[in-house]
Amino acid sequence: MADDGMLLNFELGDAPLTSQVKFKGGRWRDRVKAQRSAKQSHQHNAARPDDSARPAKRPRTDDGDYHKYAKMPRTADAPAPAAPKPPSHAMKTGQISSGLFTSNPTAVTDFDRPPAEEAEPTIPSNAPLSEEAENFQALGLSRRVAQHLAAKLEMKAPTAIQKNTVPQLIKEDSDAFLQAETGSGKTLAYLLPIVHRIMALSLNEDGTPKATKVHRNSGLFAIILAPTRELCKQIAAVLEKVLRCAPWLVCTTVIGGESKKSEKARIRKGVNILIATPGRLADHLDNTKVLNVGTVRWLVLDEGDRMMEMGFEDDIKTIVGKIRADKLLKENPDGVVLDGVLPARRVTVLCSATMKMNVQKLGEISLEDAVHITASKSELEKDAEAGTEAGTEAAFAAPSQLKQSCIIVPAKLRLVTLIALLKSTFSRKGSVMKAIIFISCADSVDFHYELLKDTKPAVELPTPDASPAKPRNPHTDTTVAPAAYVTSPANPTVILHKLHGSLAQPVRSATLNAFSTCKDPAVLITTDISSRGLDVPAVDLVIEYDPAFAVPDHVHRIGRTARAGRSGRAVLFLLPGCEEGYTSILSSATPIAPQLYESTLQKGLASQVNLPSTAPSPETEKQSWTSRAEALQLHVEQRLLATPGFTPDDEDDKPEAKKGKGKTAWSKGGGKAKPKPQQDNPLLVSGRQAFRSHIRAYATHVREERVYFDITQLHLGHMAKAFGLREPPAGIGGGVSRRTHKGGKGEKDGKVGSGKVGGGRRDDEEDDGVGKVDEEAAKRMRMKMKMMMNAASEFNIG
Predict the structure, then answer these.
(1) Where is the composition biased (Basic and acidic residues) (predicted)?
(2) What pTM did the predictor assign?
């Protein structure tokens, strides 16, 4: 054969040639085990001539306590050292948790800067005034109302906003714009003058009854609009307490989620003051003929800026137009003269804790020659029309007695830091009774509630009104549960609650009532649905786990604590990097103290963590706080990876096993046994959907603040650890997707949808009667999202 110029040179080395052993017969699992054992034996016995020249490896260390254990090779001079003892939190299967304390971005905040010393104790800015200086009777209220407030409601002195508002609404008939910080008593500021003037139709100035007395059928005198159902119910609860001094007057609510038939029946029986959400009231004005607005003298728009944000502008225009279109009656059908006692014109009162651009637009719709009333100004500005001062954005500070801080924590450590913060919060008995955690979207609320609740067998929760004859409210079965992880010997019982707009109205009302009346330490995990106007007693701590989508929302969130002069604390979670500059645009009466996550972890994880349904081993008492943090993160990841249902073992791996009624646990195809598709852990599915919704919601911050919340700087892999996931799931920007199982493979590469339209919402304060979307609506939504190709657009409201 001719030489073609090719030269083949094979380097075989000095090691002896060994033939590969093939195993035949028996079970396939036994063959795989034998093949693996033979391969490992061959590698162990193979000679390595360059071992003596290689330097010994050192175990990789991180931050002192966390080690990546690596085998150290044998050298010629020294024997191989003993393998280090694995940490007590390592998995029994040999897996080791990923490093939570490595590859994290460095914070740019200077934590070594000493905090500014306070010259004197902070004076509460929203506390009632001194009794010697002011009292309710001096404001012009009747003696009957003032005595009722002092004796029954234990309110002896007004707040600053009440001092400036009550005389104006009693003596004058002009529109008003009320602006005051959260928790300052705006609700009573407009309720007390209305009740006083309606009572004057039945009582003389000395308190003696008149010959003609109004009752529930005497007419509708006032309408109060609020953006959310919870706020409507809270206003009604406050008004009912005030009306106990005038039992002949009746108030009621008309809100979404309730029965229209029962609402019409209450209106037909008669009502004097109506509290409503805009959508439901507009519906009743169109369809309920018994609703007569001819005697209406007051229209109150509470939280007006929020109603505009939620897209109620058209409804408010409709309501204002129909009320103004009706002729103003000077006397009611019973012949009671209304002029001279009630306002001679319809009075509109607009309330807001913040001044935003949309407040100006709402003022143009509803107000005429309005008086601007604030807590700090004693002289009223009658020349300030609606929106004159609201034309520019104005910063509004939180209460001065509210202590604010922010924790700079990397994305991977967010979850364990939250648990550590809650655990340290409830470490002392009586220090904190109620805490609220604000999260961006409803899917994330559901996931964190399921994760933090105890998985032990359900026990009867202690309730303040529990009695043998009264069963527990069934509406709270899925929204109230004992908490795990955050309990302590001082507080062995912590009750967990969740609240968001996707829940049915009876469930929302029952959950909020359970949180308000709970006598044990309680935690409420919620969205922005709870940020407006809600007054829950004894809320000592507010945690913004996800920052608000705008600065005004931040002010309302932290306003759930430090109300009516009480002290309070607010904690904001921020990521290292661009988010650290967010505190520079937050207006606050007190400085926002930055904290590093390490101090929170060290304080919260100083003792062992009470895991759900499992008892910690005695070795955990000797762990450091970093080891406990890693063990806690590993525990959460293992909970999500645990597969429920049937799992075949070595004894049940025959293809012909478990036959019956045409179904087999194993199917034969191509001569190979295929496992039965296994159902995913519901907690894992919830975590993936919560992650997708969180990332989409992150992109919906207002334009001015996106420089601080830049989604391009967000590390998706690190953020996935905050949801207990080993890797980020795919399909984040897919909008709407549906779970499918093809070929028995189930979920592949994380490309799984939730089966929900939109994959979660940012603002879930849905209006009146919006229920589940039917299949046709879901198809239309999917087509719309496919055309828009914008992952964040589904969160934009109004």
Answers:
(1) 47-68
(2) 0.68
